């Protein structure tokens, strides 16, 4: 039996390729993405990271060994503290005031994604919780690597590109994949199927998040 990560990546490869082809990511690589769209994305991503940290913390509490507790508790800290620090730097650079960020609600896509991750981490088993969290790690890393490989000279978004294409981030991704593959190997067929479903759902929500950022997605009733 192939590793869970290999199987789930191949099963969802067309979706990943559609994600790479999104106008947001194409224009980000070319350096032509509008500042308005990038700022919309940054605000929503900063909101997202708080919820992602909560979901990671829940997964840490469900870990089957001490190493898992540390691995995902540290990932939660990274999401909430370190990445938000990075986002804060971008927000200063792009003129997003703290009160503007605080007053901006989660977009429908961001709300959907974060609600799913928190619910999945609380209600599902440890392996299924991690499978739902994996796309944010893995797809971000691979999108970052792809954009880095073709990023335009003097790209105004190069700092973002470098962060998610960097080796530190990819090393963390490999660690998460190794944990998930270990759990999937010991899991029964029904659990592996739920893991695959959770991964697919989050991968679809990754696509929706970037698509929403490009469209400046907001609540149609507000």
TrEMBL record:
Q: Which residues form the Thiaminase-2/PQQC domain?
A: 23-215
Q: Which Pfam families match?
A: TENA_THI-4
- What InterPro entries does UniProt report for this protein, alphabetically? Haem_Oase-like_multi-hlx, Thiaminase-2/PQQC, Thiaminase_II, Thiamine_Salvage_TenA
Q: How would you classify this enzyme at the top EC level?
A: hydrolase
Q: Which domain of life is it from?
A: Bacteria
Q: CDD domains in the record, alphabetically?
A: TenA_C-like
Q: Could you tell me which Gene3D superfamilies the record lists for this protein?
A: Heme oxygenase-like
Keyword set, alphabetical order: Hydrolase, Thiamine biosynthesis
This enzyme catalyses: 4-amino-5-aminomethyl-2-methylpyrimidine + H2O = 4-amino-5-hydroxymethyl-2-methylpyrimidine + NH4(+); thiamine + H2O = 5-(2-hydroxyethyl)-4-methylthiazole + 4-amino-5-hydroxymethyl-2-methylpyrimidine + H(+)
Report any one BP term from Gene Ontology.
thiamine biosynthetic process
> What does the sequence similarity comment in the record state about its family?
Belongs to the TenA family.
Q: What does this protein do?
A: Catalyzes an amino-pyrimidine hydrolysis reaction at the C5' of the pyrimidine moiety of thiamine compounds, a reaction that is part of a thiamine salvage pathway.
For this protein, the record's PANTHER family field holds:
BIFUNCTIONAL TH2 PROTEIN, SI:CH1073-67J19.1-RELATED
Q: What is this protein called?
A: Aminopyrimidine aminohydrolase
Origin species, per record, is: Comamonas serinivorans
């Amino acid at each position: 039996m192939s590793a869970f990560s290999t199987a789930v990546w191949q099963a969802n490869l067309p979706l990943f390729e559609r994600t790479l082809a999104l106008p947001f990511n194409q224009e980000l690589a070319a350096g032509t993405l509008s500042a308005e769209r990038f700022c919309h994305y940054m605000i929503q991503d900063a909101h997202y990271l708080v919820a992602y940290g909560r979901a990671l913390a829940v997964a840490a509490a469900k870990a089957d060994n001490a190493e898992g507790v540390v691995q995902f508790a540290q990932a939660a800290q990274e999401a909430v503290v370190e990445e938000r620090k990075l986002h804060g730097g971008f927000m200063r650079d792009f003129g997003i005031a703290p009160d503007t960020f605080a007053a901006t609600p989660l977009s429908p896509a961001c709300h959907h994604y974060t609600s799913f991750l928190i619910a999945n981490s609380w209600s599902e088993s440890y392996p299924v919780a991690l499978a739902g969290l994996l796309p944010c790690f893995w797809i971000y890393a691979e999108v970052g690597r792809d954009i880095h490989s073709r990023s335009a000279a003097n790209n105004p978004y190069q700092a973002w590109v470098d962060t998610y294409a960097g080796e530190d981030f990819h090393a963390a991704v490999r660690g998460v994949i190794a944990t998930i593959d270990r759990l999937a190997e010991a899991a029964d067929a029904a659990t592996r199927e739920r893991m695959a479903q959770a991964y697919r759902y989050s991968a679809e929500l990754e696509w929706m998040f970037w698509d929403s950022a490009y469209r400046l997605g907001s609540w149609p009733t507000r």
